[in-house]
Amino acid sequence: MNRTLGRTGIEVSAIGVGCWAIGGPLHAGAEQFGWGAVDDDESTAALHRAFDLGATFFDTASNYGAGHSEKVLGRAFADRRDQVVIATKWGNTFDETTGEATGQDATPAYLRTAVEGSLRRLGTDYLDLYQFHIADAPLSTALDLVNALEELVTAGKIRAYAWSTDDAANAAGFADAAPRCAAIQHDCSVLNPAPEMVAVVEASGLAAIARGPLAMGLLSGKYHGGRRVASDDVRAQGHRWIPYFGQDGAGDPEWLSRIDAVREVLTGQRPHPRAGRPGLAAGPHRRRHPHPRLPHRRPGRGEPRHPRPRSAARGRVRRGGGPAALAGR
Fold first, then answer.
1. Using an 8 Å Cβ cutoff, are 207 and 324 in contact?
2. Which of 105, 218, 233, 270 could in theory staple to 244 by disulfide, Cβ–Cβ 3.0 to 4.6 A?
3. What is the pLDDT of residue 2?
4. Residue 276: its pLDDT value, please?
C-alpha cells in the first residue's frame, strides 16, 4: 500500500526503512551516537530485501555514521535510483574522516554545503526529501532556512523538504510559511501516539513520518527478560531523548510495564506472575474486570459476561489530511 508524501504527489510505501543503524559508529569523545559496528554486506542485503517486499521509502541523515549510512544506501540502490524515494537530513555536523560528531549548524550557508555532501555520498543528483535535523531549534531559525530550501527545489537538487521535530507548534508554523514543506518527522508509536502532531500534519496536508514506531526496538519484544544492548549502542548512553533504555542498556522497567499493559489490552492476556516478563500466561488466568473503575457485578440473564461500551465495540481508522509514511529508526 502506498501513500502520497504530503503535498508533493510523490508516492511512497506506507512503511519505510530507517537507516540510522546501518551507519555504524558515531562518537563525541566517549559518548556514542551510533548503533555499534555494522556489516555493510548485511546492511545492503537487508535494504534489498525491504525493497523486494515493497518498501520504497528510505530515511537516513548525513551524520548517521558520519556519512556512512548515506554511502551504503546510495550504493545499494545505484542501479534503481528512480524506483526509491530517499529522504536524508542535515544540521548535525561531523568529521567524515574520524567519525566524530562535532556539533550543529543551522545556517543557510551550511545548508548549501551540506546538501552537496549528501548528494556526493548518496551518488545521486537529487534528493527526494531534505529534512532539517535540529529538533529543538527555534521556529525563527527554521524559517530563516526557507529561502535557501526553495532555491534548492528550483535548482532541482531537492524535490521537497521537511523538519524533524517533536514540537507541534513549531511544526505548524513551519508548515504555514514553507511552500514546499512536505512532511514532519516526529516520534510516534503505540507508546507515544503524538495526537497534537498528528492533528498538525492532517490540518496542513503534510505527511507524518513516524520516527521510532518500535520505540527504538523496545516494542520488538527482545528486551523483556533483561536482555541489553551493547555498551557502544546509542541506546545505552542515557541520552534524555531516548527514554526507553537505561544506561545499563536494558529496557527501562517503567516502559516495559507499559508494553505489558498494551499487550494485555490487545490480547486479553497478562504476563504470568511466575513466568516473568518474557512470556504470557500459557494456561487459564483470571481476566481483570473490563472497567476497573466500575463496581463488579454478576451479569444478568442474557447479558454478555464482559460488556463493552458502544464506542469500543468497533474500531475505526480515522482518515483525513496528509497520509502518513512510516520511517522507523
1. yes
2. 218
3. 93
4. 44
DSSP 299: P
Helix pair angle (40-52, 68-76), 10° resolution:
50
**The three three-digit cell numbers of residue 278, written as one number:** 518474557
Distance CA 194, CA 182 (A): 18
| 39 neighbors 84 (Cβ within 8 angstroms) | no
The residues that are catalytic are 64
* Residues ≥6 apart with Cβ < 8 Å to 291: none
Rg (CA), the chain: 22
Strands of 100-104's sheet, edge to edge? 31-32, 27-28, 100-104, 92-95
The list of the chain residues with pLDDT below 70 reads: 270-329
Beta bridge partners of 216: none
pTM of the model: 0.81
**Distance linking the first and last C-alpha atoms of the chain:** 20
In this prediction, residue 42 carries a pLDDT of 98
The number of residues in the chain equals 329
What is the predicted pLDDT for the residue at 81?
Answer: 98
Q: What is the C-alpha to C-alpha distance for residues 50 and 58, in angstroms, rounded to an integer?
A: 10
Q: What pLDDT is recorded for position 263? A: 87
In the numeric block, which cell numbers belong to residue 18?
A: 530507517
- CB 127 within 8 Å of CB 158: yes
Q: Report how far residue 231's alpha carbon sits from residue 226's, in angstroms, rounded to the nearest whole number.
A: 14
d(CA 164, CA 263): 29
